[in-house]
Structure formats: structure tokens, C-alpha cells
């Protein structure tokens, strides 16, 4: 039987040439003031064989740049820089969404531009350390609790960034609601202890995520907006909580009313983290009628199985695309895969970035 991964797919108003998605991956190559550059355009262009590329996490705000050298989308230089990538990917027949990632408390002030601050729903510090170019490994900062007015400003920053993304030629945007960054910090009661309308009940904790989705959809259209979620994730010091299943059930039901073009679920159990529970995945599939993307430790065989079983409509691959620009060709021909080099995941320059070999024609 033919592998379903190679079939075309209609995602909203765009046709994808296959059902594989390149998962968003931070690569820290935006060395000059977080401005995307030609090297990044080359990297994404090499991977335009994916049905859809989702870019690395890109900050909608100076406050959201937690890490060194991650790209931004909050000024005209960012638009100009990202246009190099969208032009390159489109010239090669690919489609590309920009992932909007506000890091919130997963940050260190040494990584932020001048005047920016580490903010979060509540002043709860993340355990663990992070890398800074200036001073190496450092403890996370204690974030400043956002005022209610600042929460609304942050929502407006997502809207502005989404509009800039369309201006830069992106086919859409993915709102990063996973992996312990700002949006998940609002979802989780350990990191969200707010007394206002954005904290407390399930409805209030989901309000930030849903407001971002709603307002971004109003600005650029539902066909251009997806959201990534990681139910039960423990990454970035996210703690387990009793109402997790109900929280994601409520989110799925409410997202189904707003109709973003996709929900992208990830499971990091293969990376030693907590699994995405099967019942939560199935509940979201049942209650959200739009496109569902699954990600986490897939290969071509497992992808086909999930697609054939109607567990998902699209499958995202992270490390396999990182190390194999021609991943689908390799899957089609049964060729072996290059292995990813972890030492160069986040280092500046071409090494481990644009120099992974493709198969001989
Ligand atoms: C180097 C690297 C950077 C990543 N950066 C991001 C990111 O910016 N945003 C995000 O949502 N996930 C990020 N992830 C997670 C991936 O999107 C994906 O969920 C994960 O690698 C599991 O998929 P895989 O088993 O196919 O690699 C990153 C993963 C890797 C390996």
C-alpha cells in the first residue's frame, strides 16, 4: 500500500504537496540583532520538499526573546530578513508558516535587547539554567508579573507580528502554545497564579491563548493560523496539575469555535519527557474538527500508520528534517538517513546547518 505521507493535502486555502511537516526548530543563527539572514533562507530553501515548513520559534516582542540569536518579528528589519526565506521557499515550490514564540520566563536578561524585560503571568522562576552568549550558563531570571494592561499589550504584539508575517510573505503563522513558553505559562496553574481575569479557573487560564488565537484570526484570517500544544509536557519546568485533561478538553472545544486551520500536538516522550496521553490526543481529535498535526519521534512507517488510522492529517518531523534536507526523497527510496549533530544545534554558522548532505541524483 502506498504511504499516505506522500499524498497531497488541502490545508485551508493552500495545497500541500505531501503530508509531511518540518517541525519548528530553534537554530539560533540570527546573529545580528535577531534579524533573519541569507544563511537561514538557504537552510529553509534546502528543506522546501516538505509539504509545510514551520519555522523556528520567532519572538513577537523584544520581551519574548529568551535565547541568544533567535529571530524576531516585531520590526521592518525582521520583515525584510524573513522575506529572503519566504522567497527562497516559494521559489522551490514549498509552503511556510512562521512560528510565533514568546519565551516569557524561559529567558535571561543578558539574551534580551536593551530595554526589554523578562515577563510572565506570575513571578515564578523556572528551575534550571540557560545559555547566554555574554556569560555562558546562567540561572533563569525571576520574571516580572505582567500587569493586566501588559497582558493585553502582549496579545496586541502577537497580532502585529502576524500581520508582519503576512507582509513578509508567510503562508500563515503557528502560535506556540507548547513547551513551557508564555502561552503554556498561562495555561498551567503552577506558573499562573494571577488574581485577575487571566488566572484561576480553567476558562481564565485559557483566556490568554484563546484571545491570541481569536485576535490573530481576526487580523489575518483563520486559514493562516495554527496553534501548537503539548498537553502533559514537562519541558521547561512545567509541573503536572490535576485539571490538565479538562484544560485541554476546554481548549479543543473553544478552538473548534474559533476554527484555526490546525492544531499541532507534540509528544516528547522519546526525548525522556512525559508522554502525550492517548485519551487527551483522542479527545482533541474528536472535539477539534480542523486539521490535526502530530509530532514526536515519527519515521515514515509510523507516520503512515497514524495517517491510515486517521489519528492525524499531517505528521511533523523535527530532527529528521534538521539532518536530512531531502527527507521525503530518502523515505521514498528507502535510503538511509543522516544523523543529527547535537553539538551544532544552536551554534552560529553553516556547520551542522546548511552542510548536511543530500543524496546523489
Ligand atoms: C534543535 C531543536 C530545536 C527545537 N526548537 C523548537 C522550537 O523553536 N519550537 C517548537 O515548538 N519546538 C521546537 N523543538 C521541538 C521540535 O519541534 C519537535 O517537537 C521535536 O524535535 C520532536 O520531534 P522529532 O522526534 O521528530 O525530532 C525543537 C527541537 C530541536 C531538536
Automatic annotation (TrEMBL):
Protein name according to UniProt: Alkene reductase
Lineage of producing organism: Bacteria, Pseudomonadati, Bacteroidota, Sphingobacteriia, Sphingobacteriales
Location of the NADH:flavin oxidoreductase/NADH oxidase N-terminal domain: 4-335
A molecular function (GO) term: FMN binding
Keyword line: Oxidoreductase
InterPro entries assigned to the protein according to its UniProt record, in alphabetical order: Aldolase_TIM, OxRdtase_FMN_N, Oye-like
Family: Belongs to the NADH:flavin oxidoreductase/NADH oxidase family.
Organism in which the protein naturally occurs: Pelobium manganitolerans
Cofactors that this protein relies on: FMN
Highest taxon, organism lineage: Bacteria
Gene Ontology annotations for the cellular component aspect, listed alphabetically: cytosol
